Each structure stands twice: as C-alpha cells, then as structure tokens.
C-alpha cells in the first residue's frame, strides 16, 4: 500500500525484554537486553527473536498495553512483579501521551499519517497510525518493515524514533521530513538542476549500498519513497516491501516495485533476483530527474510497460541476455508486440545528452536489461559522474550527512 502523501513511513527500532537466568537456587540473576519497543509476545517480533525471548507476563487481568513486559522477582517472595516500559525502567517512550497529532497528511488502506509533535524531544515528528484488526493483528508490511529497520542506521535512511502499541492501533513515530522527490520534481518541472541531481543520486546510491551490504533489498525504489529535507538530505523510506536476502537465493514474488520502476526481468516473470532489482529503479529515477518526465511510463499493464522499455533498450535475445528465453513472459510479449532494436539513451532522452557523457554512461550502466550486467550501488558511487564532488564524501561514516562536508549544498532550481 502506498501513500499519496510524502510520508510512506512504516519501519523501526523496537525493544524486547529478555530474561536470562545465570544461576540456580532461589535467587536468579537476570539481565534486560534492549532490542525492540514492543513486548516479546507481539506479532512484530521476528520468530528468531521471539524464540530467544522468555518473558514472564502478568495474568490477563487487568489488561496491559502490548508495549509493556513484566519481569519476575529476584527471589521467591510474594512481592508483586514490577511493570517496566518497553524502553526500560520508567521511560516515557512507547506511550501514546508522549505525542500530539497536529494534522493529517495522508491516508491509505490500513494506515493514516499525521504531522505530530513529540513532548519528549519538543520536535515535529511524523506519526503513521496503523489500524489493527482484532482477528488479523498488525499488517505484514508493518511487521516486516519494523523487523528490518531495527538494523538500518544511516544518514540516508529515514529514522524511526518510537513505536506506540495499543489495542486499536500501532503507531510508528518517524523523523519529520519536508517532502519527497516526487513532489520536489512537481515543484520544479522540466528537469532538476544538474548539480542537485548529482547530490540526490549520490545519497540514493549511498543509502542503497548500505542496505545491500547488509543483504537487504528495498524492492520499492520510486520517487514517492525518497524523502527530501529542506536542505536537500535524501532519505530512503517505506521498507514495507523490503526483504532480507539470504544465502542461498530464494525465489521472491514478482509483484514488487511500482510498475514504472520495475525492471524487465521482473516484468518478464523472474522470481530470482538480487540487488540489481533496486538498481533499475535508480536508473529510471536518474533519467527522470534530469529530463523532468517519467522514464518508462506504462499506462495499462505489464506488456505496455515492457513495450515502453524495449522501444528504448531493445527487445532482449539470448545473445544480449543469456537465459532470457527461459523467462515465462518473453515469448508471449514478442508474439503480441514484436521485437524492437535498441536505441542510444541520448536519442530517446535529449536532456540526458545535455547532461554530458558521464551522465549518459551512468544511466546506460544502470538501465541494463540483463540484471547480471546492471551496475551495483558501490561501483556506481565510484563512477566518473561523481568526480566533481569532494573526495571526502566517499569516506564519510554511515550516519554522517554529506552536507557536513564543506562546499556541499543544494543550488537553486531554475
């Protein structure tokens, strides 16, 4: 599910309380390990985490919020167990009264996003409120996003500050970011300032390289999921479709990535893909930022989308893409739509030609139909296209913004 608004937030850090006994007899010693901000019986937890968590819960009466767990006593006395916040001790985090809704920003099929205010930090935040169904619990996309984001800490990935879990709702508390790339391009039609495109691309690749090093595929790279702050910081958001890619490779659903940014291998029915899935979307966004129009705007269905792509990059053959004939969608598409020769990208997108040879080469390396030939994020960061940027950017710590480097700033859009 996608938000029309620029806040497709739904991810996070949450905390389980684990009890580990280190001795026998009447007195047990325990230590509290902070991981997530919901109790161990919550459906948000990974199965592996839930297996490790052994929490003694109070009886069901009176009912307690899901964000609280109860630790047993240190001895065999009849003293009642103490209630702990999911963030430890009497922490105010994880509590609904810590946040104030200000205005609604967007609404989807199962969640509503609000601009909010944190009484804890005295800062504006984004509140993504997910409505819970008693029989179904939390939506799977929210569970998956929270599970992944607890491991992702990067300047170019949106920060999840808190989770508030009640009987009726699950609220993700995110940092507030001004707009997204889709709205930014709508505010500046006709193509963006080329210097700004270079900065946005570097940040997008930087965030994806970090994810891919941790074997996480975003699987929904599109302008609406790239948040843009007022000073130009780009942040990947909406990890609801993201997956941790394990070894050996598993097969995944091919119904991923919004149609315009979906690579041809997935459109043809491939379910065995890797980080190359995200890189096709990066190429589409790169050309769109420079040209001011969507790169491959399919309007009807998968075949129409493939037709838009093949009219530019050419219909693949076994010579140009080994193994493509085994994909289920190729024969049917060629039988209905025919085959097209490849064209230079600069001929299809004149503004890309104006951006220079390095921009054309980077776009061509990203928009490779064969996923095995598609440029990965770490190599893309080292491309000559980024040579005008300060060399120090390549060595920044993960959580440090590129805008901390002297001389790095957005330029006014024409």
TrEMBL record:
Keyword Cytoplasm: no
EC numbers for this chain: 2.7.11.22
Region Disordered: start-end pairs: 57-86
GO cellular component, as recorded: cytoplasm; nucleus
Origin: domain of life: Eukaryota
Gene3D superfamilies: Phosphorylase Kinase, domain 1, Transferase(Phosphotransferase) domain 1
Pfam families (UniProt xref): Pkinase (PF00069)
Ligand binding (ATP): 128
SMART domains from the UniProt entry: S_TKc
Residue span(s) of domain Protein kinase: 99-386
The entry's keywords: ATP-binding, Kinase, Nucleotide-binding, Serine/threonine-protein kinase, Transferase
GO molecular function: ATP binding; cyclin-dependent protein serine/threonine kinase activity; heme binding
Protein name: cyclin-dependent kinase
Organism (species): Euphydryas editha
């Amino acid at each position: 599910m996608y938000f029309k608004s620029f806040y497709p937030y739904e991810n996070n850090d949450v905390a389980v309380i684990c009890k580990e006994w280190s001795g026998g007899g009447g007195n047990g010693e325990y230590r509290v390990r902070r991981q997530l901000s919901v109790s161990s019986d919550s459906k948000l937890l990974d199965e592996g985490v839930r297996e490790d968590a052994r929490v003694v819960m109070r009886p069901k009466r009176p009912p307690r919020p899901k964000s609280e767990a109860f630790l047993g006593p240190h001895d065999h006395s009849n003293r009642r167990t103490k209630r702990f916040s999911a963030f430890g001790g009497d922490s105010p985090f994880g509590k609904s009264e810590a946040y104030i809704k200000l205005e609604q920003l967007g609404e989807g099929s199962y969640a509503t996003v609000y601009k909010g205010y944190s009484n804890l930090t005295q800062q504006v935040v984004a509140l993504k409120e997910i409505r819970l169904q008693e029989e179904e619990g939390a939506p799977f996309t929210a569970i998956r996003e929270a599970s992944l984001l607890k491991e992702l800490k990067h300047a170019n990935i949106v920060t999840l500050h808190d989770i508030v879990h009640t009987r009726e709702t699950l609220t993700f508390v995110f940092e507030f970011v001004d707009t997204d790339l889709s709205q930014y391009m709508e505010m500046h039609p006709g193509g963006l300032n080329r210097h700004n495109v270079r900065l946005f691309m570097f940040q997008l690749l930087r965030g994806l390289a970090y994810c891919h090093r941790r074997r996480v595929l975003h699987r929904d790279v599109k302008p609406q999921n790239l948040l843009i702050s007022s000073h130009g910081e780009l942040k990947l958001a909406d990890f609801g479709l993201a997956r941790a890619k394990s070894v050996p490779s598993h097969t995944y659903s091919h119904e991923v990535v919004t149609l315009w940014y979906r690579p041809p291998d997935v459109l043809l029915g491939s379910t065995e893909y890797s980080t190359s899935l995200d890189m096709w979307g990066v190429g589409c966004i790169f050309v769109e930022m420079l040209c001011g129009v969507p790169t491959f705007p399919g309007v009807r269905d998968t075949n129409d989308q493939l037709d838009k792509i093949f009219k530019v990059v050419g219909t693949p053959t076994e010579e140009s893409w080994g193994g493509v004939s085994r994909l289920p969608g190729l024969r049917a598409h060629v039988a209905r739509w025919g085959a097209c020769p490849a064209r230079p990208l600069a001929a299809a997108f004149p503004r890309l030609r104006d951006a220079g040879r390095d921009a054309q080469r980077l776009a061509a390396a990203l928009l490779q139909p064969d996923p095995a030939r598609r440029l990965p994020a770490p190599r893309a960061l080292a491309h000559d296209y980024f040579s005008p940027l300060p060399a120090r950017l390549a060595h920044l710590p993960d959580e440090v913004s590129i805008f901390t480097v002297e001389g790095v700033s957005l330029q006014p859009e024409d």
